[in-house]
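User: I would dearly like some help making sense of a protein record. This is the protein in question:
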Amino acid sequence: MTTTTRASDAADPAAQPDADDPSEPATCREPTPAPEPASASDRDPRLDSGPAQGPGSDREAGLTSAPAERPGSGEEPALATGLAPEPGSGKEGNPASGSAQEPASGREAGADSGPAQGGGSGQARDCSSAARGPAATGSGAGAGSGDVRPTLVTRELLLRCATIVGASASFFLLLSVVPLYAERSGASGGAGLASGTLMLATVCGELATPRLVARYGYRRALAAGLVLLGAPALVLTASDGMAWIAAVCFVRGVGFALTIVAGGALTATLIPAERRGEGLALAGAMEGVPSFIALPLGVWFAAHVGYTAVCVAGGLLALAAVAVVPALPGHAPAGDGHKAAVGVLAGFRTGALARPTAVFATTALGVGIIVTFLPLAVPSGATGLVAAALFVQPAASTAANWFAGRSGDRHGSQRLVLPALLLSASGLLLTALTGSAVAVLTGVALFGVGFGMAQNATLALMYARVPESGYGTVSALWNSAYDAGMGFGALGYGALAAATGYPLAFTLTAGLMLIALVPALGDRRRPSVAAR
């Protein structure tokens, strides 16, 4: 799980600057004739770095919403899944900033490097920054030289973090409890059926959510997800029949899918493009910390106070988060009618999104393997080693996620994808030495660093390649890659280990992961091509 302020619902459209006028806001203009259109050399990259405007904007669906990676990073110009301008269309990148130039963006520098402020946020618009040049943007070229960078933590991002914590705590509090309750019902394979139903519903919901977001907006989709995640938990223990438990798990899985896909897309709109990697790392930490706490706490809670109490607590955590949803932005940009919505299938067919998705899914294989089989692979009685390894891996991932976010914002995310894959495979290979505690701990730490880098770099890269209307698709692709990678990793490794033993299975899986070098290297070489 991540990971930018706007006024799509509160601001008066009539009060916004003309979308065809790239000049300063009216409150900051000198009484002089309208300036000539900005050239590629002096255009402020923040004019193009933020997401598209809300409903009613003049922005065309084909315009990209985020800057391409800085020159020299090997990054492609910003892409859109089926929406980016064709090469040679005249929307060249700004050589001073690396951002895609839009002739009629209507964005105001200094005020709109992320989405516009929501109502009541209390943040003043900085008129003096409207005339700043590229060196003052704090993006790749200017970072590190004392230049002003856009604010990362805003009121709306904090409110969004509250919904992240509520959804994550609700999901993980019951993740192990529900299978235990299903086993208590006496049904054969009840635990597996409960978990399988939950994950199947989650993946299906992730693939369907982008169209729901395009039709109903972020706010409604997120609120519906929190309700579907929380309300069924309140009545889970009304029956111990397996059909009832499976039905509750299915509804909660759909709800969780809505919260992570719609919420993930919303999070991306609340983060300035210049600090996208760092913001996604922050959102990931907000999701990861509750999972570390809630997962063991749920089992302890069920053993000491009963299943009903823990299920009610899990339900209330999600429902309480609904209270802050009305203060969040409500809509993705309308773009060119409803053509701006990008379907998940179109995303799979677009190489600029499919390649980083494939790399991330490959690294996620290792997570499912380590979490599921490391306790069985190490010598019996090494419970302390297992506990330490299962702490080191997510801790290393969290730290690497943050490092990748800050580094990617300054130097480009694409340069981190290949090292992330190699570190992940190397860590899994070293973990094959299951008889050595040092090798196991070093291996899971290396894997954790690689996986954390892959989490942030692939997601930031994918968001940078689509307009805001494609954020839902990116979130769906990335989260489904996470879940499918973990699931297939555990399933495939289990079958392999049964035939070869755990150490050799770790070695073979590490080698298999290198197949992802094909999309990783291909992503560095292939030019920007818009899929139509």
Q: What stands out?
A: The radius of gyration is 23 Å. The mean pLDDT is 74. The CA atoms of residues 164 and 361 lie 22 Å apart. The longest helix spans residues 190-234.
